[in-house]
Amino acid sequence: MSYAVFLTDDAAHDLNEIYDYIAMHDGSGKADHVAGQIEKAFLSLGDSPERGAYPKELLALGIREYREIFSNPTASFTES
């Protein structure tokens, strides 16, 4: 069974800022690569919704509707 994965508006805004920063400092090719790796990581939650951890600050409030995952999208980048 597949689940829908949503980004909050704040998360989407943060990702756009990350993209813009990388594009400005390292080029749009690297920014595209990093954005693709991040998107791949969060979309994987649709098939593996138990993957990831509950954010501690939300757990303290009893909120369990959100997960966070960590990814190193630059680890697989090879410069040509």
Task: Please characterize this protein's 3D structure.
This protein is mostly helical. The chain has one domain (1-80). Helices cover 48% and strands 0% of the residues. The chain contains 3 helices and no strands. Helix 1 (9-26) runs antiparallel to helix 2. The relative contact order is 0.15. The model has no long low-confidence stretch (mean pLDDT 85).
Number of domains: 1
Q: How much helix is in the residues?
A: 40-55%
Regions with pLDDT < 50 over 5+ consecutive residues? none
Tell me the major beta sheet: none
Total number of helical segments?
3
Number of strands: 0
Q: What order do the helices and strands follow?
A: HHH
| Share of β-strand residues | under 5%
**Helix/strand-derived class?**
mainly alpha
Mean pLDDT: 85
| CA(first)-CA(last) distance | 39 Å
Q: State the shape.
A: globular
- Gyration radius, rounded: 14 Å
Quick rundown:
By secondary structure, this protein is mainly α.
Features:
80 residues, mainly alpha, 48% helix
Secondary structure elements and pairings:
Blueprint: H1 9-26, H2 28-43, H3 56-59
